[in-house]
């Protein structure tokens, strides 16, 4: 009995011994056991609710406290157990286990909370780092989708850099709202370019759906914008130039101060019913003026199918004038550096800028001939020339089936598309010749 000392704890008895400290009755006892093996253990002895004597382990002894409890630390823990015992807790082992379980549960809950906070912080940090701007999204979209387009996405890029990116390019993609998009197209509507506004909405929608597909955003901000509300419902164009208007063009074009190549393009499009993009992207190796054949490769045609045009003498004459302008270039319509074809919009723009409403002054740097190409039937576009050529064909007796083939339209009837393999080569040549003869007569009448 008495007080346990470090000297006793460090002794080397010949057999296992117990050491006990004095304590008042009903307080339990602090004890130590020194085993023959050299192990030194602390216990708190008490009587449980069933009247059984219990030796509750407190810990192992280490005078330095490095690999166990010092005598002082063990006595303190035993004192805590004694106070619990005196407070009426008789099943200290169960209480201690419950306390340990609660401590572990509290610790685990705290660890889980800290982990959740850390993960949330890391997720937010990653989300902030991954918040693409609209400009960055556009570049991603351009690299994945737009580069596969015939022009490599050049025209879409031009439109975005002019009207979209200056307004919303620096916004985070997930912050873009419906109002931001309508602000872009409203600015275009105010300029009077309704069709471009509709196209812009369509392209912005394609870009945001690209973002949704890649989990960059959850919702497309353009989803609730109805295209029909942007400038009204689309109206299919049916503009066809009359014979009098074609005669008027022959008289007006020379005074319109357009590039000579643009003037030539108007007559080639009328004489061949081609699309402006097909003409612009043509290389001279695809044009055989001796045989009167113009081959449009599949990559240049809208439907992805090659198209062969039999050139009339009227069309050949304009191509011969064109080749005098291009010199040694491989392109029929080379750009300023001769590294590729000119942008199709350059021709469209020259024609549009010469059909300004009467009284409207042209913008700075634009042609002073703002009304030079106005025709009686109203505004016309390069694509209307294609429709006009096909209309003249049928008026000259060409059957619609052949006229459709001259336009390189895809046959809508699947059965006919599969089983009707006749090329209509001779019939198409005759159709283009009839068109050329008629245009020549109108042209000379107009300039006469």
What is the strand and helix layout of this fold?
Blueprint: H1 6-9, E1 17-20, E2 29-34, E3 40-47, E4 53-60, H2 71-86, H3 92-129, H4 134-144, H5 154-168, H6 178-190, H7 194-213, H8 243-252, H9 260-272, H10 276-280, E5 287-288, E6 293-296, E7 307-310, H11 313-326, H12 344-352, H13 382-395, H14 400-406, H15 414-419, H16 425-447
Antiparallel strand pairs: 1-2, 2-3, 3-4, 5-6, 6-7
Please provide a written account of the structure.
The protein is an alpha+beta fold and 448 residues long. The chain has three domains: 6-90, 2-Layer Sandwich (Double Stranded RNA Binding Domain); 134-229, Tyrosine recombinase, N-terminal domain (DNA polymerase, domain 1, Orthogonal Bundle); 243-447, Orthogonal Bundle (hpI Integrase, Chain A), CATH 1.10.443. It has helices at residues 6-9, 71-86, 92-129, 134-144, 154-168, 178-190, 194-213, 243-252, 260-272, 276-280, 313-326, 344-352, 382-395, 400-406, 414-419, 425-447; strands spanning 17-20, 29-34, 40-47, 53-60, 287-288, 293-296, 307-310. The strands form two sheets. It has a four-stranded antiparallel beta sheet, with helices on one face. It starts with 5 loop residues before the first helix and ends with a helix. The mean pLDDT is 87.
H/E topology pattern: HEEEEHHHHHHHHHEEEHHHHHH
Count of discrete domains? 3
Strand order of the largest sheet: 1-2-3-4
CATH superfamily of the largest domain: Intergrase catalytic core
**Which structural class do you get from the secondary structure elements?**
alpha+beta
Roughly what fraction of the amino acids lie in strands?
5-15%
Q: Can you give the mean pLDDT?
A: 87
The overall strand count is 7
């Amino acid at each position: 009995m008495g007080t346990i000392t470090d000297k006793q704890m460090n002794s080397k008895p010949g057999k296992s011994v117990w050491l006990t400290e004095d304590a008042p009755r009903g307080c339990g006892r602090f004890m130590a056991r020194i085993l023959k093996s050299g192990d030194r253990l602390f216990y708190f002895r008490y009587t449980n609710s069933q009247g059984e004597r219990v030796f509750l382990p407190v810990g192992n002894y280490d005078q330095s406290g490095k690999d166990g409890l010092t005598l002082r630390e063990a006595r303190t823990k035993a004192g805590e157990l004694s106070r619990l015992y005196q407070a009426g807790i008789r099943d200290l082992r169960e209480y201690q286990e419950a306390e340990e379980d609660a401590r572990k549960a509290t610790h685990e809950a705290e660890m889980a909370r800290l982990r959740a906070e850390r993960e949330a912080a890391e997720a937010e940090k990653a989300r902030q780092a991954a918040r693409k701007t609209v400009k960055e999204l556009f570049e991603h979209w351009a690299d994945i989708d737009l580069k596969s387009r015939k022009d490599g996405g050049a025209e879409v890029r031009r439109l975005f850099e002019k009207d979209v990116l200056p307004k919303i390019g620096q916004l985070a993609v997930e912050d873009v709202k419906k109002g931001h998009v309508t602000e872009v197209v409203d600015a275009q509507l105010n300029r009077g370019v309704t069709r471009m506004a509709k196209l812009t909405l369509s392209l912005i929608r394609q870009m945001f759906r690209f973002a949704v597909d890649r989990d960059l955003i959850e919702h497309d901000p353009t989803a609730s914008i109805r295209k029909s509300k942007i400038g009204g419902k689309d109206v299919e164009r049916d503009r066809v130039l009359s014979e009098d208007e074609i005669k008027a063009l022959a008289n007006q074009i020379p005074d319109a101060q357009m590039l000579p190549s643009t003037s030539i393009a108007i007559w080639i499009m009328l004489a061949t019913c081609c699309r402006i993009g097909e003409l612009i992207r043509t290389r001279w190796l695809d044009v055989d003026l001796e045989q009167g054949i113009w081959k449009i490769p599949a990559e240049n045609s809208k439907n992805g199918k090659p198209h062969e045009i039999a050139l009339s003498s009227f069309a050949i004459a304009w191509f011969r004038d064109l080749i005098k302008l291009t010199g040694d270039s491989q392109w029929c319509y080379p750009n300023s550096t001769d590294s590729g074809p000119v942008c199709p919009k350059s021709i469209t723009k020259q024609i549009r800028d010469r059909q300004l409403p009467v009284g409207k002054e042209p913008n700075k740097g634009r042609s002073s001939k703002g009304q030079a190409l106005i025709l009686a039937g109203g505004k016309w576009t390069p694509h209307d020339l294609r429709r006009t050529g096909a209309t003249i064909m049928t008026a000259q007796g060409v059957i619609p089936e052949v006229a459709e083939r001259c336009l390189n339209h895809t046959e809508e009837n699947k059965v006919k598309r599969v089983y009707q393999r006749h090329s209509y080569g001779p019939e198409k040549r005759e159709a283009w010749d009839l068109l050329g003869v008629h245009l020549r007569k109108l042209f000379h009448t107009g300039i006469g």
